[in-house]
Specification:
Blueprint: H1 2-29, E1 39-42, E2 60-70, E3 81-93, E4 103-114, E5 123-127, E6 137-142, E7 149-153, E8 156-175, E9 192-194, E10 197-206, E11 213-219, E12 221-228, E13 236-246, E14 257-267, H2 270-287, H3 296-317, H4 327-359
Helix pairs in contact: 2-3, 2-4, 3-4
């Protein structure tokens, strides 16, 4: 017996060491259930901002948009997804023969963001109807050769560019429509996916009293996102984007030209989606042994430990703040019911055993 106990002890120690190694390697490699909370991600880097790469055209060589994505908080029963535009950069070609002037005015006419490509009524605007008093967002670009820069667009590198940069402090969208951002009732299985579209339109003016437009069009945006997932915002975020062409025939509230079809997928970390059923099954197996206990004192000790143990599962599996009623809460209530049923069976077994003793 002593030898078996020693071997079991050694087996547990070896298993714990192996588990520690797996966890350490998983964290370093970023395996699914060991991913650390992230801050910052950019996507569609392969998109080539091909606008204005042809010589002799007054145009802008694409636009870079910096956006902050704030996922829904689990502490809010009615959740909201916030997208904030923080900075925008674009580039003006210096070798354009039409730029025979000391400066030009570059204007962003509109940045459109739509939640549903098939329904224009769900469109929001960073610069547009909601900010009509602020648009167009225009900047004067002084055509000083010493201010030219070189920039890469996908696999193409261009020099002789004038950078144009906007900084924003109040351009944000709050999406709280439950048709797009679901409630957290199904936590930790309450993920959702939205497929918004985005387009940037612009025009360029000569810097004179007449303000003659040199060009007007749409830009292919390179989207750089920043987000943080931690605390009450336990999310894994996957993003992708493709550039598409809109010919103006349809119900999109967009200009004819290029736009980005975006996919934003938010789901709970895989660790929590796997651990919840594991805990539930393990607790049910433990509770199933309650009717087999030998005496009432042991029953009281075990049931007291179970009561606090089940309650503690919410602190382990849930975010740091209250979330309202979720599937997690219902599962824990179900465990309490199973525990009560097991205790009931314990007393039934005791009564049956006492009856058999009297008969004997």
């Amino acid at each position: 017996m002593a030898g078996n106990n020693v071997r079991a002890y050694i087996a547990v120690i070896v298993f714990a060491v192996l588990l520690l190694i797996v966890v350490a390697v998983g964290i370093q490699q970023g395996w699914a259930i060991f991913q650390r909370p992230e801050r910052g991600v950019s996507f569609n880097a392969a998109v080539l901002n091909e606008n204005a790469l042809n010589e002799g055209v007054v145009d802008l060589a694409g636009v870079d948009l910096d956006l902050a994505l704030l996922p829904p908080s689990s502490s809010e029963e009615s959740r909201a997804l916030t997208i904030e535009l923080t900075r925008m950069r674009t580039y003006l070609r210096a070798d354009d023969p039409a730029l025979q002037t000391d400066s030009v005015i570059v204007c962003i006419e509109e940045i459109s963001f739509g939640l549903n490509a098939a329904d224009a009524s769900t469109f929001y605007f960073f610069i547009g109807d909601d900010f009509r008093e602020d648009i167009p967002e225009c900047l004067t670009v002084v055509l000083d050769p010493t201010q030219q820069v070189t920039n890469s667009f996908g696999d193409v590198e261009l020099d002789g560019l004038y950078p144009v940069t906007w900084e924003f402090a109040d351009k944000r969208i709050v999406i709280d429509n439950p048709d797009f951002v679901s409630l957290n009732f199904w936590y930790p299985y309450d993920g959702f996916t939205i497929h918004p579209v985005m387009q940037v339109s612009y025009f360029i003016l000569t810097d004179d009293a007449e303000g003659i437009p040199l060009n007007f069009g749409t830009l292919t945006p390179f989207l750089s996102w920043e987000y943080r997932t931690s605390g009450s915002r336990l999310w894994d975020i996957n993003m992708s984007a493709t550039t598409q062409e809109y010919d103006g025939n349809g119900n999109l509230d967009l200009y004819p030209g290029k736009y980005e079809q975006i996919t934003l997928e938010l789901q709970r970390p895989l660790l929590y989606r796997l651990v919840l059923p594991f805990f539930i099954v393990m607790m049910v197996l433990l509770i199933g042994m309650v009717p087999l206990l030998g005496d009432r004192d042991t029953l009281v000790d075990i049931c007291a430990a179970m009561l606090f143990g089940i309650f503690g599962l919410k602190g382990i599996l849930g975010p740091a703040e209250a979330m309202g009623q979720t599937v997690l809460d219902i599962s824990l209530i179900g465990l309490y019911i199973v525990l009560a049923f097991a205790a009931f069976l314990f007393f039934v077994n005791k009564l049956l055993a006492r009856g058999r003793d009297k008969e004997a």
